[in-house]
């Protein structure tokens, strides 16, 4: 029977070719991948998992965890990866909402999760980061000759929950063709072949590490160095044998700070990709000056996989996310009316294509609200398209600052401050203000030893930005709060500084 996604993976797999190499010396061929995922799929079948059932997974990164994802695809289940940082209270919501047939967790977490799972009718198995656990023990007694379940292009392959910073988390439903079409497009657009060797230091509970890095590698029949986490020493050690790296901006910042980053160290590499959070233009320029490589920045999200990419062969412009990918339609619209805007104007980014998700799990009203009648998905990201067709991301719609009736796009203010001597990076937020509704507030990280202060920042912006865009306050911090994928958590900053404009004697909560 046909299994839309795994049939394509199987077609690209040369059994004798290397698929995964780990830092502890283990090696997996594509033949091993087919056998191990087959045994785990057989184990899931034995546990009663049927096509359409959900399998929730909260485990540390390991080759076996990746095999579990592939096994779910093969058995026809809907894979539900969960951030390893989620608490029991958060897991209770996800398990209750998704109603998985099976939950797979780390052995140390089994006791707490089993109590939650029991309340929702789910069975619990374990998997550790060394390839052990009850699920693997069960799989070792199963056959590797598994007959893949029939799954068509529109059948669900995964549910990924959004972060839920503006309400309860939503489960984005991704189909077999959402994942396959996007991975095939990226494979071709980024010129991936079986000769490529990817440095994979990303987590695999997220779109970037799981569906971009892993699926693209699989569809190309390429190999990857599978690191448990990012380690600059280890990454630089691997570069002479590798050809590609995918990372978040933090990876590149750390590499720039490493004395081992040179043109010689990166001579064998053909491509560096960055995503999941905005890459500072300064990071792009510094990395290029040190290595001769221009980082390729792309833009995607949980609901859509990847939407745009800087070109593989053309100019990669710092501060942009490139062109819409083949097959993806992208437009910028007025956030209120939905009317398309001309190039150069800032508005809401909307996308349409085979990469765009099916909707939010058990939220038909929310799904309907996020799609236009002509099928375009409203991303919630603000951006513009320049005269060359490159897409610029200005920020999230929820991060827009409205001060004194004026709309201020944080990215514009951040870019100006980031260019000042002594500044590492900036996050601009809107904080409640008694006179203006919201006060433009800049939270700045200084370079070590820098003496730049609030007055210097404000003076530097006087002739650079309109008065209404200039910050009312500049706050200096050692680091900006980030999530596991390196995105700055502006919601945390807004909560932290909610009371700074409160009248004297008033409480932070007004």
From TrEMBL:
It is an enzyme of class 6 (ligase). GO terms for molecular function: medium-chain fatty acid-CoA ligase activity; metal ion binding. SUPFAM superfamilies: Acetyl-CoA synthetase-like. Its EC number is 6.2.1.44. Residues 13-361 form the AMP-dependent synthetase/ligase domain. One of its GO terms (biological process) is fatty acid metabolic process. It catalyses: 3-(methylsulfanyl)propanoate + ATP + CoA = 3-(methylsulfanyl)propanoyl-CoA + AMP + diphosphate. Gene3D superfamilies: 3.30.300.30, N-terminal domain of ligase-like. Keywords: Ligase, Metal-binding. InterPro entries: AMP-bd_C, AMP-bd_C_sf, AMP-binding_CS, AMP-dep_synth/lig_dom, ANL_N_sf. The keyword Metal-binding applies. Residues 412-487 form the AMP-binding enzyme C-terminal domain. PROSITE patterns: AMP_BINDING. NCBIfam families: PRK07514.1. Belongs to the ATP-dependent AMP-binding enzyme family. This is 3-methylmercaptopropionyl-CoA ligase. The lineage of its organism: Bacteria, Pseudomonadati, Pseudomonadota, Alphaproteobacteria, Hyphomicrobiales.
